[in-house]
Amino acid sequence: MTQSKKPRVTVFATGGTIAGGSESNTDTLYYDSGNLGIDSLLAAVPEIHDIAEVSGEQLLNVGSHEIRGSDLLNLAKKIQYQFENDLADGVVITHGTDTLEETAFFLDLTTQFDRPVVVVGAMRPATAISADGPLNLLQAVALAASNTACKRGTMIVLNDRIHAAFYTSKTNANSLDTFQAPEQGSLGYFLNAKPYFYFTPALASHKPNFEVKNIDSLPRVDILYSHQDASADLLELAVQRGAKGVVINAAGSGWASPALEAAATELTEDGFPVVFATRTGNGFAIKLPEQGIGAGILNAQKSRVLLMLALASGYKHSRIEKCFTH
Ligand SMILES: NC(=O)C[C@H](N)C(=O)O
């Protein structure tokens, strides 16, 4: 941290419900995501300026289902630039919650600095009665401004909780307490707007790190869902259409249908990465090396992010396997 009186926090806005608007203040479903610009978001919480010197930049203003790989790369590079040039002590990203965990995980795997990176969203649009966005944003800025938040990886803030991006997922389509890591729990809580951590700084075990500086684009990686009687047709099509890797959201500890298993074994023989995650939402997916790659504790969408980064970094099969194997 610098010697300046207040810590400097840069807010990058990308849209989502936190910037959402509707004509009705009881509407929490059919609103426009990405309606308000960054100036309105910041103006709704003037208290942030008591905590930090805040500056903001509008990167996108979309529902998070529209976020693309190129946006992730751009965002990661912007954050890197802030820290490399000592322009900020912490960074906040406002984001839609639907794919927030993917962006937060991407940032967690690509940051080269100990300074806090905080991804924040909301479940109720800014126009709703009891909108949760303003308090979430205040808490996110307070967290990014706090030196107690350093060396903890990328964090997610919603509903008074501080979560580790590595482990946390959106678990409910509608409720405010949607971000959860049932096995690992949360990192801490907010008392008013002050972050309170349960433990001293720690990082997720076996977290790989990727340097985004030299990555210009991310390769296509598809996710396929396994179920009873699943055919291998979509897997074959994905490969034909140019996927460089595939994640199968498989049953239990990594079991796909016989047709998918057979096709994955053939692809694995050719050195094509097929990662098996568990569709249960918790626990480890494991695989024998000849069958494919077990995603371990990562869900399918996080496995996809990791596989894209590993492929973009030029990793070969055995090194990719090591990124997933705990
Ligand atoms: N709560 C939200 O932010 C959901 C919204 N559809 C989004 O992800 O952009």
Characterise the protein shown here.
The chain is α/β, with parallel strands linked by helices. It has 2 domains: 8-197, L-asparaginase, N-terminal domain (Rossmann fold, 3-Layer(aba) Sandwich), CATH 3.40.50.1170; 221-324, Rossmann fold. The chain is 28% helix and 20% strand. It contains 9 helices and 14 strands. Strand 12 (245-250), helix 7 and strand 13 (274-278) form a beta-alpha-beta unit. Helix 4 runs parallel beside helix 8 and helix 8 (300-312) runs antiparallel to helix 9 (317-324). The chain is globular. The two termini are 33 Å apart. The mean pLDDT is 97. The structure holds asparagine (ASN). Asparagine binds at residues 16-17, 33, 63-64, 96-98, 121, 123. Residues 16-17, 33, 63-64, 96-98, 121, 123 line the site of asparagine. This is L-asparaginase. InterPro entries: AsnASE_II, Asp/glu_Ase-like_sf, Asparaginase/glutaminase-like, Asparaginase/glutaminase_AS1, Asparaginase/glutaminase_AS2, Asparaginase_C, L-asparaginase_C, L-asparaginase_N. It comes from Leucothrix pacifica.
